[in-house]
Each structure stands twice: as structure tokens, then as C-alpha cells.
Batch of 4 targets.
Target 1
Amino acid sequence: MGEMITVEEAIRLLDRDTDWKRFQVDYPESSLGNFAIKKFSIPKMDQYRMELIIHEGMDRDPGFGTFSRLVETLSEPDGDGRLYRVWMSDTRAEIMEHSPLFNRLWWAQLDNGPGIRLLINGLGLGVAVHGALQHNNIEHIDVVESNDTIIDLVSPLITDTRVTIHRGDAYDMQWPKGTRWDFAWHDIWPTIDDDNLPGMRKLMAKYKRRVHWQDCWQRQGCLKMERLFRRAKAGKLGAQEMLDALEGRNIL
């Protein structure tokens, strides 16, 4: 077994890597309707940051510094009693959740082939779009978003002419015959939940013949959650394992 390190040592190790910061959107604060882009800060040795690393692992480290997030104001409290929902932020952990896409784009740069055509289902804060544009092989990005307020709030901040934002539903969007992309990234879910899996499978089936590669935000996390609940239902999950799962440990 490897030698244990303190959370302070883990933070020092994590903070050696700053490459993820170039994927941050750094948009100004603004609001429209019931949505807003808000700034927030996390100090280097923040207690919340340390607890996340301890309980959920180093992959869930949000990093430190100033961040942006897309927040929806709710008309009534959610199941946790909150009057708001955070749809996306540009913390380290959330940027790393787009690694399947960013890694695929990075490797494609080495081929020196034609420019990449990319489909992104779900605009949100625009982290996936902004991150994709950091790669030098992007020819065009089609983005599908169903929420008019999000489009009107976020799209003016994306000025690159290689990006086209379409108003429509990811499941029902119709494309001209022969439309294809190299890669597709589906990101229309606000939380990691095994209930997302049917929708993920539906989207991947819809675009199976239109892309060379596709994946969904946190699909592996949703699959792991599904396996945990199956084990629990079959009585194969111990009390401590169930507690860890409920508290967020060992899921992602």
C-alpha cells in the first residue's frame, strides 16, 4: 500500500498543474430572467476544498482562485431546500469532467489532418465550447441548446465565428441529410445520476451514424452509480460502502 499523504500535501501536488486554468471562461457577471453568471472564489487552503478532497478524492478538487458559475433561481425550494440550482462552473473538477472530449481533441491535433467538426449538445456556461476552442484544429462547432434564456445570456460571450448555436432540443434536433461531425459531446444534465443513462443512450444512438466518436458528460460516473444501486438492491453492498456512496465517496 502506498504511503498516505496529508490533505495539505495533496493540495500542493494538485496545484503544480495549472494547465486546466486556460479552460476557464472568465466571463463577466450578468443575469437574464432566472439565470445568472456569478463569480465566486475559493482560497488555496479553503476548508470546503479540503473536505472535498478528503471525502471524494483528489479528482473532485475544485482548485483555488476565482471562478464563474451558471445559476438558475428556482420558483420553489428543491429537494434539499435550495432556491437555486448550479448548472455548471469552471472549477478544476468540472473542467476535468470534460477530459474525454479535450483529450480526444488534443490527440487529433497530432494528426495534422483536416479541421475537426464538433457537435456539442448543451451550451450551459460554455465551458466545453471554450475548452474546445483552445485546440488549434477546430474547423467548426455546432452547439444545440433548448433554453432560450441561457442562449441569450451566454451566446453573446462566445464571439468566435467558428461556433454556431442552434435553438432546439438535443433529442429532437433535425439535421440536413449527410450532416456529420468528427466528434460529439453530450452535456445536458445538471447532476450525476443513474437516471441520466436512458437519455445518454438515446442521444448516442441518435448520432451513432453521424460521428466518428461521441461521449456524454460524466457517463462513467452515472454507470458507476447504477452498479452501486444494483449491488445495494441485491444485498451485496455493505453498510460502510453504502454510507460512503451516500456521502459521495467512491462514486466517481
Target 2
Amino acid sequence: MKKSIPPLDPKIVASQRNAAQQKALEEAAARRAAHVVRQRASESGGQEGPEPTRYGDWEKGGIVSDF
């Protein structure tokens, strides 16, 4: 014979859900606080100014090539 599961109290379910949501928010805040952004290494021997591939052309020695 199967045992019937008693109905859940909506207030208890909401309380448990709110506790889980709060825990998730606290964990996310802790991860954001622990995240350290490292400085990217500079390119040696590269061109000065903005990234040429980002703007669609490349200039080297006065010669421009579009790609």
C-alpha cells in the first residue's frame, strides 16, 4: 500500500525558497568581491594606438592594407 504524501504548507515552502534565494545571492556577492581583474600584459613590438584589426585596416611602414 502506498503512503500518501501530506500536502505541503505554502508558507513553509516559500520560507525555504526565500532562504535558498538569499543564500545564492550571498554566494554570488562573495564571488564578485573575490574576483580580481588582472592587468593585461602590454604587447612588445606592436603598433601604437588603437587595435588596428578592430577598425578594419592595418598600417605598417606607411602602407595601409584593408581587410
Target 3
Amino acid sequence: MEWLRGADTTYVHANTSTDDELAMIKRSGGSASVAPYVEMLMGHGHPPISRLLEQGVTPSLSIDVATSVPGDMFIQMRTALAQGRISAFGDDVDAALAPTLAHTDVLGFATLVVPRACGLGDRVGTRERHDPGLAPSPPMTGCRPPHSAPRRLP
């Protein structure tokens, strides 16, 4: 089963994974994808974003079940950010909030990490690399997104 754990493997959800299993993802060079909205809605448990980051694994964001949750990456980013902020609250309401997850983090999860998790990191440009030989990163918005335009089936 060792051949299953490689740089070309993306682990999805990982809500119930132990810290040792998350560390194994890092050691193997694999990636992890978190679908925060569906994970909380369907009771998978807390999205493991902070636990993955603690192990050195930067997760990508995904949607999973578009029939149950919005198929919009902005919703996923907002959900991930809100969940991170909620997790940062302590029991003392007078203590200052010290969130560890920032807006730029979740934007990176949705734009920079996704091409790598899909095996396209060497072919798709990101804001980190602007190589003219690479295709542009997948757009998150467009003038006519498929989910908002009427379609006529043959």
C-alpha cells in the first residue's frame, strides 16, 4: 500500500485523520483538500485546516457535493475563514481575538494550492509564477459562469 502514498495523491477531507496521518501527507509530498462547508453541514467534523497547517500541509479548498452546498469558491473561502475565526475564540470573552487564519491564506488555498493538488502545478501559472509558457490559473469568476446561465439541452 506504500505506492498509494505519493506526491500525486490528494487526501480529501481528513477530518478524522490523526496528527501522525497528517504528518505522513507532508512526508509523502501529497496534498490535502478540505471542503469546509459540506464537512460542517454533513457532520464530518471540524475542517482540519489548522491541523494540516500545523503539520506543514497547505490545503486546497474544494466543494465536494454541489447538490448539497453552494458550488462557489467564494463561499468555501468565507466558510473556511469563519470556521478558523470561530475556532480561535476562547472561553474568556474579554480576551483579545488572535486568529491565525487570514483572508490571504484562504485566497491562496483556493487559487494557488488547487492547481498543485490537481497535478497542474507545472502547467498552470499562479500569482507566484508568471511564466508566459504557462496557462493562466483557473478563473474563479467569469462573465457567464455555467451555473448562472440558462442552458438548452439538445
Target 4
Amino acid sequence: MQDRMKQAIDNWREHGFDVDMADIVYLDEHNDIARYLDTRGWETSATSTSELFLANGLDPIAEHDDDRAPFAIADYISATMNSASRTRPGRGSTQHGG
């Protein structure tokens, strides 16, 4: 995955798009964000990159598309806090904490 991402970034740079992916993605071990939020009173849904493309009138990412294939495995997570969780102390949109 990291090699394909590096290759995609190198291709972008050849076209004048210079970005440091380390600033916008985290590729090391991490928690499943949907599961993490689900256990804390949120309702989550995952949408694949290809589903998002289709929903916006674009072709899905093909596996052989070297420029975009690294992004095909990404899921975008939407989350809404359950109304029951909003009433519990320490939770909700107006309270902040760790």
C-alpha cells in the first residue's frame, strides 16, 4: 500500500501537485474509527471511495488505475451521535473532554 501511494504521489508531482501525504493520512497501526465511535454512542456508516464516485456521477476506481487505486480501499465514515447518548454527562455536542 505504501509503495503504491508513493508511486501515485510521484506521478502527481510530475504534474505539479506537490503534497506531503504524511500531513494528510496516517498509515501506521490505528483503531477502527467506526467501531471506536459505535462503542461511544455514535451511529456510523461507511462508504467506499467507489460508492462516493458513483453517487456523484463519476466512474468507480479500477484496480489497474495506478494513479487512483491506492484510494480505492479507503472508506469514508459518517457518524451521528445517538440521541440517548446526548443526554449522558460528558457526552454531546456542547461538552468537550477526553
